[in-house]
Design brief:
Helices cover about 35% and strands about 25% of the residues. The chain is globular, with a radius of gyration of 17 Å. A six-stranded mixed sheet has the order 6-7-8-3-9-10, with helices on both faces. The chain has a four-stranded antiparallel sheet with strand order 2-1-4-5, covered by helices on one side. Helix 3 runs parallel beside helix 6. The two termini are about 30 Å apart. The protein is α/β, with parallel strands linked by helices. The chain is built from ten helices and ten strands. The longest helix is centred in the last third of the chain and has 16 residues. It binds adenosine-5'-triphosphate (ATP). The site of adenosine-5'-triphosphate (ATP) has 10 residues, from helix 1.
Length: about 230
């Protein structure tokens, strides 16, 4: 569904992504893990058109989308749940969800019901200002808002960041449920243990390169991964 070919991205003179190639098959959950600064967010931001790659290509459903605008890319069916959630604090839950569907003209009732089924908590709180939700609820809202664009591929940047373990488990259960319902998922995580358990396939990034790849189970059993990323899990 998604293919990156030898992607290079620089900020000023500094190369953050140094030739990355990988594929995300339709219907899968793929995860990128790696230390802070490895280039994971930069990869996602270049897929969705927020940064322009220096070279290489991004191909989505057999069409090259490298360098297209974010609006065009969202319209093709890719959406990003950014790190730190970034909901609109002064708008209600419902207003936030509607913003996720800003490109769509059809009746949203069915999709709102879909989101409320996935996240009953958001239904209970649809009139609450988003800024007053708990961290976990804001993460649910960020995911719900992204789903309102009806993506074929949803990319999530650190969905577990700053959340209590029980809430994190809930978020991962939802990620798996969304995937079961047919949405392909590309996930970046610091919590390598949970991400690799959920993922069909994983890639380990270090200073802009992919240094290891394998199925989630293979990487979980890999000694290098255990030593570097699973120590505290
Ligand atoms: P984290 O887990 O901390 O978010 P990451 O693996 O997602 O890390 P990136 O955020 O992609 O890593 O950053 C990769 C490198 O690019 C880092 O060295 C970072 O300082 C640099 N970088 C990221 N954004 C910018 C920017 N807007 N301008 C300059 N340098 C940047």
């Amino acid at each position: 569904m998604l293919k990156l070919n030898d992607l290079h991205v620089s900020y000023g003179g500094i190369e953050a992504v140094k030739g990355i190639s990988f594929a995300v098959p339709e219907g899968s959950i793929v995860t990128l893990i790696g230390a802070n600064g490895a280039g994971k967010s930069t990869v996602l931001r270049s897929i969705v058109g927020l940064v322009k790659p220096k070279s290489g290509s991004v191909v989505f459903q057999d069409e090259e989308i490298t360098g297209k605008s974010s609006d065009e890319i969202v319209a093709k069916g890719i959406t990003l749940v950014p790190e730190g959630r970034r909901v609109f604090s002064n708008l209600s839950v419902l207003e936030n969800l509607k913003i996720g569907a800003y490109m769509r003209k059809e009746d949203l009732t069915k999709d709102l019901n879909w989101i409320y089924d996935l996240f009953p908590r958001l239904k209970e709180r649809s009139w609450q200002m988003a800024g007053t939700l708990s961290g976990g609820e804001q993460q649910m809202l960020a995911v719900g808002r992204a789903l309102m664009s009806k993506p074929k591929l949803i990319m999530m940047d650190e969905p577990s960041l700053g959340l209590a373990p029980l809430i994190v488990q809930g978020i991962f259960d939802i990620i798996k449920e969304i995937n079961k319902q047919g949405v392909t998922i590309l996930l970046i995580e610091q919590n390598a243990n949970l991400a690799l358990k959920a993922a069909d396939y994983g890639y380990v990034l270090e200073t802009g390169h992919i240094i290891l790849s394998g199925t989630g189970a293979e990487l979980l059993a890999n000694e290098e991964v255990k030593a570097a990323y699973l120590g505290k899990s």
